[in-house]
Specification:
With about 600 residues, the chain is of the alpha/beta class. It is about 20% helix and about 25% strand. The strands form seven sheets. Strands 6, 7, 9, 10, 12, 14 and 16 form a seven-stranded mixed beta sheet that branches. A five-stranded parallel beta sheet has the order 2-1-3-4-5, with helices on both faces. Strands 13, 15, 17, 18 and 19 form a five-stranded mixed beta sheet that branches. Strand 9 and strand 10 form a beta hairpin.
Length: about 600
Amino acid sequence: MIEAEIFGRIASSKSLQELQLDGVLPEPYDDSGYYLVYYAEADYKHALPEIISYMESGLRIYYDRYLERGAAHLQDFLAKGFSSHCRCIVFYLSEAVFADPTFRELARTAAEHHLPVISINRSRAGAERSGVAMAREAGVPAELLAHIGQLFPDEVTYIPFSLPLEEKKRELLRAYESNAMRYSVCDGFAVAEYVKDLSEVEITVSREVEIAGVKYPVRAVAARAFADCRDLKSVVIPDTVEEIGFGCEDASNAAVFENCEQLEEVVFPPRVKKIYGGLFRGCHSLKRIVFNEDAVFAGNSGSHFDFQTLRNADLSDVAKGEEEEEGTIKPEGHPLEEICLPRACRILFHLEEDGDVRFCYDTDDGCAATYLISETVRGGTENVLEKDFTVKNVSDYYLFSGHSEVERVVFPSAYNYASKWIRTFYRCSGLREVVLPDSVVELERTFEGCENLERIRLPESVVTLGSMCFADCTSLREITLPRYLYHVADLAFHHDHLDVVVSDSIYSRNIFKSGYREEADFLEMGGRGLQAVYRFAVKVMMHMIDKNTSKQRPFTWWCEAKLLYITDQVKPFPIDGYEEEPSDRAGYRKYRRHISEIDHLMFLRQYAKP
């Protein structure tokens, strides 16, 4: 039904109930960012055409089409007015409205909670009168008059009913824009609590707001203030704001910008010193973040740069451009164009050729590393490593990966930041010696590519040497396995040049398990006689290739050590590929590498190369 026809039906109707039966009035808008419009039943012929015109022009209006009665209706209407998504309450004031019980309750609620209101005043005499003047003439009770005086005082400008419709729309839009956010008062300052219209594209937080006739500076932005504004692209935060995430119970989950999927830029004002975690969860489009240089991160160490692309990724196990093991989760770098970090952030490396950035930062409960892709990185603290470096802080754990300057690193015995170390010293090509703390339990790819590593002491806390733990450590000639070491992965010493392995482990039998568990497939064909022929043929072939068997590739399961020393605290056991001989070390049995050509060939057929 076209607008002119609706207006004609309204003008010719005898009552609002008649319109209700005809069903000609449009549905009210009850999603985010709406105007709540209230009018008296006696004024429906004047109010409804304007309400419909507002809605046709795109304004979001919630109104009561039928002006129902009853306690349930009243509570529903009050809930709509008090909703966080109600931008403004618009009252059509006339002599008739002051006697309406719903109006009285709504006015009381709006006054007590300082809700934003605006009035369109229509006096029967045709004079332009303020709301409080009209209420006095209507003889309203003193208590209600006090509320009306607070909402519609003489000095506040109202919208005259006689004003042209387009000018009324402009006045309503001005009220809409000035009430984009809900503000509250706390300890003498204002807090920006939440956005009323979740479809906002740009928001500017006010420097100062007036509440109940008193002006307050805006010094805080509450937790979840902009959450779920999926169309929001930019936010301007004034320099009066000192805290962002105000009132959050969990410092790791302030969620101020959570699910702002189109948000492109956030600039924190200079007074903000404390940055809560979880601010940017779900912000997939962020291009620029500027932190105050004196800001400090609070809350869980892994929550500050969670864009929902870093979840479930062990950041210390990732090196961009490297092939990962099966099952390793590699995070996707978030495509920031620019990030300005606080001084507390310690940048680990910045590869300008492809813009990769990884940095660590201190938080209330320790430290964390993050992985970003950014064209421009400013701020933070560059790390200068001394050749002989002693670890002092928890966050120093993240300093070493990829650095070539440091030669010796000493961890204090009480250092206990992490029990599983993954790629901690990855490709530290200059590293020669490391003193590990007593808290290390598991190592995996920890010293991969440390080609100059010569000396390392594994503490008794170590129980597992994972895959590629000492891969390509070509200068490491001797290592002692600690007392409670239980497992050594097959590729733990891949491409190493070990000469001597000393095992103090009480689990040595498990560590030095058989190099080949079963015979090679080609030696299992046919009966025992045929297998004997195969064995003889292979031995002759290997003898023809090279009579000097010592030059053949040694038999190995996880290393190629020439000598093994096994603590005599464990019972003697055979080690494939080695022969026991008189020991030259007290308390140890000595084994020398020994392998025949046929065993070597069998091993090569079942050995899985990386």
